[in-house]
Structure formats: C-alpha cells, structure tokens
UniProtKB/TrEMBL annotation:
Keywords: Cytoplasm. It is found in: Cytoplasm. This is Tubulin polymerization-promoting protein family member 2. One of its GO terms (biological process) is microtubule polymerization. GO terms for cellular component: cytoplasm; microtubule. Pfam families: p25-alpha. Residues 135-155 are annotated as: Disordered. It comes from Oncorhynchus mykiss. The gene is LOC110537336. Gene3D superfamilies: EF-hand.
Amino acid sequence: MAEGSVSVAEVETSFKKFAIHGDTKATGKEMNGKNFAKLCKDCRVIDGKNVTATDVDIVFTKVKAKTARVIAFEQFSQALSELAPKRFKGKCQEEAVQQIYGLIAGREPANAGVTKVDKAAAVDRLTDTTKFTGAHKERFDESGKGKGKAGRVDIPDASGYVGAYKGKGTYEDKVKEA
C-alpha cells in the first residue's frame, strides 16, 4: 500500500457499500454490527493476532449510542481510530489511522463462500420440460411455461344444464332449422 493520505471520501464509499450489504432496506448511511465485522474481516483489519473479531465487536458497542443498533460514518471513523493503534502497533495514532483507511478505501464486500448455482447436465435434464412424459407433460405449455392449476387438476366443465352434454351451443341452430 502506498504511503500518503487516503481520501475520506473513498473510505466513506466503502462504508456505504458494506452498510447496504445483505440488507435490502438499508440506505447506506448507517451500518450494523454484523456488516462492521464483515468490513473489518474483508479489509483485513482483523488480523487474528492484534485485532480479533471480539475486539471489533467491543469497539462497535463502545462507539454506538446506548440504545442504537447501528453506527453512522462519524462513529465508524471513531471506531477505526480506536482499532488503528491495535492493528498497527508502534505507529503513531495519525499514521495508524491512515494505514487502516488504506486497507478500507476502495474495497467492497466480498462474496466468498456464497453458494454458486450448479449447472450440471443432470440438473438441465431434470428441469427441461420438453423431455417430460405422461401426466407431467400436461402441466406445461409448448414454451415450457407452467399452466398452474389447470395443469394439475382436472377442472370439470359445469357450464351446461346436463353434465356431459356434447352438443353444447347447438340448440339455437336446431331451432332455426325447424
């Protein structure tokens, strides 16, 4: 990592990306403890020796408001300045904060270990509706789209006066002929 100051805007951009990670209702202005821990892990603030996941949780609890469950960017900066001397021992406070900002700037949540969609031949074969036979074939139209209830259940035609009358709609024609 190059020495020099990292812009706070870059760190704030990373903060926003991690703040909305995994939460569809998040605005990006506040971050919960789980996402703060993820940021610290993904950006290697947690190194396992000097800074652990427990340290991160303790600092998060310390900087947030007593009843709050989230922190804003100001509290996030405060949390980083508390973690910085622990992570970079022997450095002055200002230098340690800059280095911790350097770890975070420009980063976004990693999706490591996320389940990938399996595209095996067996799955393709089992989900290809054109290869279905028997009763299962009736459940889909030519395009492979499901027919819904009409494909699963025989819906009786209860439109006529007599149950299974085949000449439905022909009465008017017979009356005209006579």
